[in-house]
């Protein structure tokens, strides 16, 4: 976020423009000549997925330090601040502009940049129209489909799944729900309990699960729309005197935290499905643009990775910038 989480981040400590924080940047001079600027306007840098997103993007840019300078600034999920960030970047004459929009309202700024001949690469979130060079992001519906299929296989095609939802009316939630339902509907023995809107927050999911367990309804698996809610549901389950005799499965989405991978290794969570960060691919694309090569694809969809105990160690090695 594997998530368009503009509403889902209300409880997080946000940073970015207006906070006094300077833009994150890398050196921009080689042989006494300024390097072309690749500027990144991030929606926010508060939640764990976006922190990993930022770190991976910076690491990728550092690999091209001889060919580009790089600056990033976050906007606290405030479209007005993000428009100001983009307009400030424009004064620096960037050669490529990366934008993960806070909302579609920043389209006015991305359109202006595009109209000035600056390649615009959208990351994770989209805007209306076609005034952008490329879009890079994950596929939440496919992630939901794969998570659902994992649960179906682990339950042998029979059982009850408690779905702990994010924010019910935003696209990532809809896609992660409907993708999973495609898999569940192909298994007639699977029943689904649609849980409350828990805002992608650990504490909200924990409180919901505490109340749900008091109902003593039977369930065999928990599918949470992100890892934070999976952890919250697990914490409530572990502390409850009303938990089922047989431990249910716990499956989340995002795969961006060391804590989550360690819990999988320890057998506390059963799986997570990576919501891929688009930063490294965006830097790769920007480097090609700086060489005069235009993207051959308008939309680039990144694959997910299923993380279980079997591959958790390798996943940690392959993803060194996971959030703490």
Task: Supply the key terms.
single chain, 324 residues, alpha/beta, seven-stranded mixed beta sheet, 37% helix, disordered N terminus
Structural class: alpha/beta
Strand order in the largest sheet: 1-5-4-6-7-8-14
Q: Describe the main β-sheet briefly.
A: 7 strands, mixed
Shape: elongated
Supply the number of helical segments: 10
Structural Rg: 21 Å
Quaternary organisation of the protein chains: single chain
The whole-number mean of residue pLDDT values reads 91
What distance separates the N and C termini? 16 Å
Strand content: 15-25%
- Order of SSEs, N→C? EEEEHEHEHEEHEHEHEHEHEHEEH
In total, the number of strands is 15
Percent helix, as a range, is 25-40%
Q: Which stretches are poorly predicted, pLDDT < 50 over at least 5 residues?
A: 1-22
Describe this structure in words.
The protein is an alpha/beta fold. The chain has 10 helices and 15 strands. It has helices at residues 48-62, 79-90, 107-115, 140-154, 171-185, 202-214, 227-239, 258-265, 279-290, 312-318; strands spanning 24-26, 29-30, 33-34, 37-42, 69-74, 96-99, 120-123, 134-137, 158-165, 189-197, 221-224, 249-254, 271-274, 299-301, 306-307. It has a 7-stranded mixed sheet, with helices on both faces. It has a 6-stranded mixed sheet with strand order 10-9-11-12-13-15, sandwiched between helices. A two-stranded antiparallel ribbon has the order 2-3. α1 links the parallel β4 (37-42) and β5 (69-74). α6 packs across α7 (227-239). The protein starts with 23 loop residues before the first strand and ends in a 6-residue tail after the last helix.
